[in-house]
Design goal:
- This protein is an alpha/beta fold.
- The chain has a domain of about 190 residues: 3-Layer(aba) Sandwich (Rossmann fold).
- The protein is built from eleven helices and twelve strands.
- The strands form two sheets. Strands 6-7-8-3-9-10-12-11 form an eight-stranded mixed beta sheet, sandwiched between helices. The protein has a four-stranded antiparallel beta sheet with strand order 2-1-4-5, with helices on one face.
- It is globular and about 70 Å long.
- The mean pLDDT is about 90.
Length: about 325
């Protein structure tokens, strides 16, 4: 499989009044052509900052201090804002978790879709309107022509998310990043969006990064999973391997805390303790203060690096050194 995206030793900090927050530390991952990667972890693990770094939309005061992000063999971090703007939308696109706040409330759906299409293609106004209607039909929006004339507040949450998906695929991007795209939706609509995204990948031959805190959602969409905690990747491998035999103590704890029909009648598990303060990162393993499987001083000293095991599986835990 040809490599499409390669993130290498990425480090991101946020300069705050309280000090320097080391939000991402030595992040490395790869996504191949037509491949789907799920990035999971609890709130504050750095998932969204990673996606923003890849897209080149990291908000102030965030700053990439080292590392590289290669897309189709080109280092995105070395590009001018103008060239990055051309790649964003045509090569890379993003679906955000809150479509109602992502769409501009002052403009109709048609105007917003036309702007995207004309920015990244040579379509005239009439052709762009036709293409926008066609895209809405592809993402299964009923009465597509009517929806084009509506404002975002006139759409349901599920309908607005379909519009966002249509805009994301409008220029046939090689890689789509979906940041918690079903969080604000009910279960029925969530299932429809998941099925739609699988169909979109096949239709457009796109790769996908799906960011979520919900392993049950990720396993329905992604062939690989990267588990993040406290600004690092603690485990990465195929979805089947990780869900059938999680290796890192945090991955196991995260799976145990997921609600499931099979756990009916049993109390929900929680992960005791708190995510470490990124302003004052402790020495040793980042999961030390919450790990129920540590023995002796196994979590002390130098933080464990990702160690490659069989079948491309990687885990950051001293038990596997």
């Amino acid at each position: 499989m040809n490599r499409l995206l390669s993130v290498n030793n990425l480090n991101v900090v946020f300069n705050t009044f309280d000090g320097v927050s080391r939000v991402l530390r030595d992040i490395s991952l790869e996504v191949g052509e037509c491949e789907s990667l799920g990035i999971v972890g609890e709130t504050g693990s750095g998932k969204s900052v990673l996606s923003q770094s890849i897209m080149g939309i990291l908000p102030v005061p965030g700053k990439i201090i080292s590392g590289s992000i290669f897309f189709k063999g080109e280092n995105l971090l070395s590009l001018s804002s103008k060239k990055m703007g051309k790649i964003r939308g045509a090569g890379l696109s993003m679906i955000l978790q809150s479509p109602m706040t992502s769409l501009n409330p002052l403009f109709k759906v048609k105007e917003q879709m036309i702007e995207v299409l004309k920015t990244h293609s040579r379509l005239n106004n009439k052709e762009a309107v036709y293409r926008a209607e066609e895209l809405l039909r592809i993402v299964r929006v009923p009465e597509a022509k009517s929806v084009l004339e509506r404002y975002p507040f006139e759409l349901s949450g599920g309908m607005a998310q379909r519009v966002m998906i249509a805009m994301a695929v409008s220029c046939n991007p090689a890689l789509i990043i979906a940041d918690e795209p079903t969080t604000a939706l009910d279960v029925t609509v969530e299932k429809q969006i998941i099925k739609l995204m699988r169909d979109i990948m096949r239709r457009f031959n796109s790769s996908l990064i799906w960011i979520s805190h919900d392993l049950d959602v990720v396993k329905q969409v992604c062939g690989k999973i990267a588990v993040m905690y406290g600004g690092i990747i603690v485990e990465i491998g195929s979805t089947e391997d990780i869900l059938s035999q999680p290796l890192h103590p945090y991955t196991r704890a995260l799976m145990d805390s997921q609600p499931s029909v099979s756990k009916r009648g049993r109390p929900l598990q929680s992960i005791e303790g708190f995510v470490p303060n990124m302003l004052n990162i402790p020495d040793g393993c980042i999961f030390d203060c919450r790990c129920l499987e540590k023995s002796g001083d196994c979590c002390q000293g130098t933080p464990p690096a990702l160690v490659e095991l069989d079948n491309g599986r990687r885990v950051a835990c001293r038990k596997y050194l």
